[in-house]
Amino acid sequence: MAELTDLTIAAARDGLKARKFSAREITEAHLAAMGRARDLNAFITETPDKAISMAGASDVRLARGEPAGALEGVPLAIKDLFCTDGVLTTAGSHILDGFKPPYESTVTSNLWRAGAVMLGKLNLDEFAMGSSNTTSYYGPVKNPWQRRGDNRPLVPGGSSGGSAASVAARIAMGATATDTGGSIRQPASFCGVVGIKPTYGRCSRWGIVAFASSLDQAGPITRTVRDAAIMLGAMAGHDPKDSTSVPRPVPNYEAALTGDVRGLKFGIPKEYRIGGLPTEVERLWQKGVDWLKAAGAVPVEISLPHTKYALPAYYIIAPAEASSNLARYDGVRFGLRVPGASIDEMYENTRAAGFGAEVRRRVMIGTYVLSAGYYDAYYLKAQKVRSLIARDFAEAYKKCDVILTPTAPSAAFAIGEKMDNPIAMYLNDVFTVTVNLAGLPGISVPAGLTDDGLPLGLQLIGRAFDEATLFRVAGVLESAAGFAAKPAMVG
């Protein structure tokens, strides 16, 4: 059944409609692949019975000739940040032990309405705080790729490492993910898959465990740009339950893949040419420029002058919002409870046992920058920088239609390699955080391999709510790159 797990979402959709195979057959093939790949630790919770039941319902609808949903019978995996009715939802944290929500997130509800099948809940950095998927209470996720001649397990990127690893390893056709500072795009780059962070407000945040509410955005990770277009079309849409959800119609993203970018202008930001950028990353970026030029697009040099302040601003704003959001985890209403002699001691004991080191670090930073005497000096100043970054992009888009950059400053690194240096870990987000601070859409497309055989991605950044243009350009980039490499474990 290996050939079924190698299908794209688009091919599976077409094959199911043509009755070449059943939804149950595709689902069983993926469940078997999940069993063979447990060493990756991509899943926290597997839901095989639910998957078979959902696949069976799809087969019934298809047999009756009912209108098929956009993802009818397609097996997907769900990042364990999305609440799923009656299914364990942990956010990768000990503090949510045993939490089974009595409701479904809007994004997953949309996917089930589109006919998708749930394989299980995916591992992630605890509360989505991390760039390596090593902070999860349930242990690190392994990247299915390995360096040539090196057996050390590699990180899949984070926080959506389980999502990217599962799609790259062919144990899910697609996966939901979230992106607060690069957590869709960076793992997509590390694992050689496609990941898009939509415009802030394009997908509902209702029912998604919050990290930083003004930055978090859900999106898909898939193996092709077309698959990402199909999946985002099903995930997106206005939600009256989410006050940040924008009431704009969702375009037909798949129809945007015309392959024609003649006359389109793409910006090259000079500030992204940072010191110490590996030659392989520089070389791939130049290839991306050449590929788009060959397709008829026009390169334009642009400036994003406040880029150098993005990481410091992000690591003030995100922890500040996290410290507020995580205050709800107190051992009283749900999840872990560690008793104490008083209610205050119970709070302290529960949080000390329930939160991991990285979460505690960010909560402490966030509480500090919001405290009396420091709010103006840090948090308020970071918000002003955020406004300047958004203005930089607005000025840049007077000269170009999209922006082309590397996705990450390196390929995947070994598990444990940067654990002792939080600053080095935070620098993984240097090319991605600006997009979240400005609320813009960004997509990572696999475009090449390092000399030792690891994938590298190129990032495209678009205007707000112009994901259609992003998909159009990404499709051309994908075609020119011709990235067909697979992890050795899948052949």
Give the helices and strands, then pairings.
Layout: H1 2-5, H2 9-17, H3 23-36, E1 43-46, H4 48-63, E2 75-79, H5 106-113, E3 117-122, H6 161-168, E4 174-179, H7 185-191, E5 194-197, E6 217-222, H8 225-235, E7 265-269, H9 279-294, E8 298-302, H10 310-325, H11 343-354, H12 357-370, H13 375-396, E9 402-406, H14 422-426, H15 433-438, E10 442-449, E11 455-462, H16 467-481
Parallel strand pairs: 2-3, 2-4, 7-8, 7-9
Antiparallel strand pairs: 1-3, 4-6, 5-6, 5-10, 9-11, 10-11
CATH-level-4 superfamily name: Amidase signature (AS) domain
- Supply Rg: 21 Å
Q: How many structural domains does the protein architecture include?
A: 1
* Order of secondary-structure elements: HHHEHEHEHEHEEHEHEHHHHEHHEEH
| Total DSSP helices | 16
Strand order of the largest sheet: 1-3-2-4-6-5-10-11-9-7-8
- What is the CATH architecture descriptor? Alpha-Beta Complex
Could you walk me through the main structural features you see in this protein, from its secondary elements to its overall organization?
The chain is an alpha/beta fold. The chain contains 16 helices and 11 strands. It has helices at about 1-5, 10-15, 25-35, 50-65, 105-115, 160-170, 185-190, 225-235, 280-295, 310-325, 345-355, 355-370, 375-395, 420-425, 435-440, 465-480; strands at about 45, 75-80, 115-120, 175-180, 195, 215-220, 265-270, 300, 400-405, 440-450, 455-460. An 11-stranded mixed β-sheet has the order 1-3-2-4-6-5-10-11-9-7-8, sandwiched between helices. A hairpin with a 5-residue loop joins strand 10 (about 440-450) and strand 11. The longest helix is centred in the last third of the chain and has 22 residues, at about 375-395. It is globular and about 65 Å long. The mean pLDDT is about 95.
